Amino acid sequence: MNADGGELDVKRPLPAHLNLDDFLPNVTASNHSTLEPIKLGDTVQAMQGELQIPFPSLPFAGRSQKVKEAIDYLASGGGVEARGAIFTKPEVVEFILDLSNCVATRDLTRLKFLEPSFGGGDFLLPLIKRIFASWREEKGRNPTRKELETSITAFELHKPTFEHTRRVIISLLAQEGLTDTDAEMLASHWLHHDDFLLAPIEDSFDFVLGNPPYVRQELIPPTLLREYRLRFKTLYDRADIYIPFIERSLSLLGPSGTLGFICADRWMKNKYGGPLRKMISDSFHFKVYVDMVNTQAFQTEVVAYPAITIISNDPPSTTKIAKNPTVSKDGFAKLMKQLASDECPSSDHVYTAKDVAVSSQPWLLGGATQIGIIRKLEAEFPILENSGCKVGIGVATGADRAFIADFDKLDVESDRKLRLVRTKDISGGEVNWLGKGVINPFCDSGGLVDLESHPKLKKYLEDRKEIISSRHCAQKNPKNWYRTIDRITPSLLATPKLLIPDIKGQSHIVYDSGLFYPHHNLYYIVSSHWDLRCLQAILMSSLSRAFISIYSTKMRGGFMRFQAQYLRRIRVPAWDQVSGVMRAELCEAAANRDIDACNEAVCKLYDLDIDELISLHESTII
Ligand SMILES: C[S@@+](CC[C@H](N)C(=O)[O-])C[C@H]1O[C@@H](n2cnc3c(N)ncnc32)[C@H](O)[C@@H]1O
Q1: Which residues, 6+ apart, have CB-to-CB distance to 237 below 8 Å?
Q2: Which residues on neighbouring strands pair with residue 192, listed in sequence order?
Q3: 312-369: per-residue pLDDT in tens?
Q4: CA dist., res. 418 & res. 111, Å (int)
């Protein structure tokens, strides 16, 4: 797996006979979010007449030459080492099988198992051993080949991996007592060299177990991506391939069937996970979540944010949550006992939570105490943007080296440049302007200024035309070659605002009285109602940190993403509900950058006791 979790080696040059256009991503940063998923069975308008969207699978015979070639291209990628493939540690696999209740002491002889992407067989091999053990336990004998034929269905797309694992499985089956011929025949029955997302699968399953591939959309040939989009409603925005893997796996579960996966946890909170969260919270039981971040779940160290997720095809109910388990046989055995107990003990590391999965909202997976307090505040207070505040992001130019320079040296008409505030200017907690400015090519009323009436600006831009015109936005619209990617709204400069950098472990909230224009990696908050110094005190407090921490995906090292989507969800009272005394207290705390005073004021304002706030703060520290 690569650093982003991608599994397939798609960096090789394309075979000469394939049309490059077919492999150019059709999902770009600018259009991906506008692509609406098309539902199965929908009738859509095609070039000539109407086209019926096909069924979930795409049998081999029905695949176009281009689809076949795209699959072949992925199937013949480099070897496991070259692809940096990662494998789940055996003790983690055994733990997932136990958590899914796929245990040899249970009668597994009639049950059906699916492994959607078996790789080196890390799940299949222990699973096969458990199935044989269960036969001996239940029936006092070994199963025949015939009796095992419907037990397992497993897919692997990468041909060399498929072949290698097939041989390993044949040898295990022989060790378990089948003849060589039966072992070969059974493996051929079980193992499918195909794309799990398109393969025809008639059965439903009692268990789907595995570690689905992580492949970013940009790495999937567009012909295939189109086929996936037709079939999977969860392939939304920039969703990674593991998302439709989960959707298809869930859709193949029989009644009370169980899915046990280890995969990235990002979808549980981020934008692209929304439709999958909704699908699960509407119709499935999100049973167990084990946060594996900061543990060694894989045989090689990788930058990933893994979680073990157990979901069953049952009505929604409570979720058992565990964090940072000790990765060892004994550690998992102990945790297994705690999680299996009906009265799951409540600590902030292992607990049972109600209402974790609520529609497409980010799922709250923090500590039990933290979730309780946050849910209470959500019920009592409106979100920031319903309290008269607005969250935005600063300007992206697309070519900072052309549009941004020392303010004094920008030789353009004085109304064509703005003082720019960047992350560097606010590192000390107040704006300490380092003197940069940004060119403003926009009229105050919107639209671009006429360069003929701004000769200095015209010269400045034309001197840098090569850089400016090479931007994607300029090439798409050559007439407007000198626009910045984001429109500049000069009135924002003179508006008092709070500035917040994206990645910071701390709530780093800085006040600008209305002197600067924000650069693109700064978010800003303006308000028609709230006094911004008072709001700053709330945002600097441990409470806001807890809101962000619980809504956002955490980064390694404990950093949180202070992004607009999470900032907007912070709860604040309506301004007219804040007493004069409280306003003065908040304002003073923020002006002095006194975090303790901010926390004290916030406790009073939200009717929290200080212990609750302390527990909120502690739960945000990984
Ligand atoms: C993260 S590995 C997991 C392997 C195994 N389940 C494990 O835990 O070790 C993912 C596997 O999925 C395979 N794969 C990728 N795309 C696939 C697809 N569309 N259908 C089936 N397998 C696929 C990759 O070749 C890789 O072996």
Answers
A1: 32, 33, 271, 272, 274
A2: 155
A3: 999 999 999 998 899 999 999 999 988 887 665 566 578 888 888 888 888 888 777 7
A4: 68
d(CA 536, CA 498): 7
Q: How far is CA 5 from CA 41, 215, 248, 305, 379, in A?
A: 32, 7, 20, 10, 37
Residue 410 near residue 437 (C-beta atoms within 8 A): yes
Residue type, 86: I
- Pairing verdict, β 285-291 and 306-312: antiparallel
∠ CA(393), CA(395), CA(400), 5° rounding?
Answer: 140
d(CA 398, CA 410): 18
Break the chain down into helix, strand, coil percent, rounded to 5.
40, 15, 45
* Three-state secondary-structure class, residue 96: helix
Distance CA 495, CA 491 (A): 7
Pocket of ligand 1 (CB under 6 A): 1, 7-8, 85, 87-88, 117-120, 122-123, 155-158, 161, 195-197, 210-211, 213
What letter does residue 409 receive in the DSSP assignment? Answer: G
Pocket test for ligand 1, best of 1, 4, 7 (most atoms within 8 A of CB): 7
What is the Å distance from ligand 1's center to 209 Cα?
12
Q: To 5 degrees, how large is the angle CA 86–CA 260–CA 93?
A: 45
Q: Residue 485 class from Cβ within 10 Å (0-12 exposed, 13-18 middle, 19+ buried)?
A: middle
**Residue 504 token pair:** 């910071």
Q: Would you say the pTM of this structure is higher than 0.85? A: no
